[in-house]
Amino acid sequence: MSNSHTKRRLPPLGALTAFEAAARHQSFSRAAEELHLTHGAISRAVSQIEERIGVNLFIRRNRRVYLNAAGQRLLKTATETLDALSNTVEEIYRHDSASPFLVVSCEPSVAMRWLMPRLGDFHEKNPNLNIDLRMAGGPIDLLSQGCDVAIRRTDFGVNEDYHITHLCEEFSGPVCTLDYWDNSIKEDLSKGVWLHSRTRPNAWGDWIATSDIEKVNPKSEQYFDHFFYALQAAQDRLGVAIGSLPLVLDDLTTRRLVAPFGMQPTGYHYAIITLDDPNQDPRIKVFRDWLLVQINLMS
Which H/E stretch holds residue 222? Predict the structure, then answer.
């Protein structure tokens, strides 16, 4: 069968939409209500498809309609096709430079402990641009993951095709509550419970290697799946964790946590990752400029 012959048999998109609704509800009346059409319009659309392909799709009995085997096959393909078209159109719309949406992929810890508390300020300053925040870490494929921007800690290789905007250098050090420090550790880290993150398993060892503290063994240790869990555990007085700036900035500012040994540079930094120069997309430029202002406020 030639491609031209196949294309001639394809039903119009409008008729296919009407069929999908009728098949899903197994009711022409309910499909008409959903699509704001008349019962007759739905019936004509279904008949048009049946005439085009030469096969009945419904069993019509006692003013009711029921999908037959051919109708069930077409419903499955029609649903997948219409969903794919809808998703593609939505992606094109959301990623157009004139779109009111900006899709941002951000590491969960950065998002929860630094970015999200500040997004209210962004929305106040940019009410016509909505941030669609996706939680993800590690390497990023902006195109396949449908994202415009990624915010990452650069502890992995970044494809040279990407444009990288430096945000800030990372600093780290032990953090805990003042109460835990005064009553449990008493300036001796070996008396504390060390809180670890499986996403940053070398955090304690890396900090000790760059600090003036002699290697010590903790009283006990506890492990968490994610970095932000370990930081929350420290805030809940369960022990002492390695915190990093900017993630614990707000906690240190409000004294929810203290960093008795200060903070040391980790050798990593946080960055904005985009496909092209942010200046080429007004949405990305606005978000990039706002992020840089927020970073400068940390100084």
Answer: strand 220-224
